[in-house]
Amino acid sequence: MTGGRKSGFVALLGRPNVGKSTLLNRILGAKVAIVTNKPQTTRDRIAGIYNSGEGQIVFLDSPGIHRPKKALNLYMVRTAERIASEADVVVHIVDDRRLETGEEESLVRDILERLAVPRLLVVNKADRMGAGAAGPRLSEMMESGLYREGFLVSATTGLGVDAFLRSLFEMLPEGPAYYSEEDLTDLPMRFIAKEIIREKLFEELSDEIPYSVAVSIEEYKEDAEKGLIRIRGEICVERESQKGIVIGRGGRMLKNIGTAARLELEKETRERVYLELFVKVEKDWSKNERVLRRLGYA
Fold it and tell me: What is the CATH number of the domain that holds 218?
């Protein structure tokens, strides 16, 4: 018996850096997806579980849709397409940049047009646009006929988020909760640790270096008696010169990354964390499907 409660899976789709992860974190009131100011930060399916008196929505954050140039990028786009195909509702998120006719938006629309499920439009960052620009932008895009409904939202301020959630519950079917009401995500802490380390790499490193970096967790051990978690992470780069940049002079860069990651991991786990980070070179790993599978991109 569901008692009239609703449930379903909602995919967040869009080109890179439109605020999909920020919106997910805003809805949950907690951080489950890493966020940086660089595009193509999300590489995997990230599930966020939202519970209310009306039911449960499992939001699926996805990598930004872009033209893939390497094996890693192809994995990311395929992941986004798979997420969209498995959802009960797909939400197309755009932001304040007018790029509807650009290549990336064309790729997103190609995916949307192949879907049989309801499609919604969210114009994010509406607070930066102002009412005079945001409303006409939404109306113009709704004329395509692709979307059942459209919303003006700001993931940073919360503008429009409640109305968006109400509409989702209205269209989702009655059904049981898929996860416990205490869960915010279905991701294990081992995966979350990898993502937190990768986020700090994106934040600390400049230019294109973060896109040539992958993280794997070689060891994750919980010592309940000591209230301590031991984590050994391996940072994979594509060239020897990148290894030197990640380590930094006197190891300073790697130390800064490790400290920032450890502090956030302690906040997430509410335990003391001992974090070791090592850097290795795996030549052109982002182009090698065999190495990608070993790093978890399969």
Answer: 3.30.300.20
Q: Is residue 12 within 8 Å of residue 93, measured between CB atoms?
A: yes
| Angle of helix 240-247 versus helix 252-269 axis, rounded to 10 | 70
Total count of domains within the chain: 2
Residues 106 and 30 in one domain: yes
State mean pLDDT over 28-40. 87
CATH number of the domain enclosing 167: 3.40.50.300
Mean pLDDT of 44-68: 94
Q: Are 61 and 12 in contact (CB under 8 A)?
A: yes
> What is the rounded average pLDDT of the residues 277-294?
94
Domain check: are 78 and 207 in the same one? no
Could you tell me which residues come within 8 angstroms of residue 195 by beta carbon, excluding any fewer than 6 positions away? 33, 34, 215
Grade residue 62 by pLDDT with cuts at 50, 70 and 90.
Answer: very high
Tokens linked to 109: 């629309």
Q: Encode pLDDT of 142-156 as tens digits.
A: 999 999 999 999 999
- Alpha-carbon distance of 22 to 15, in angstroms, equals 14
Query: Could you tell me if 206 and 288 lie in one domain?
Result: yes
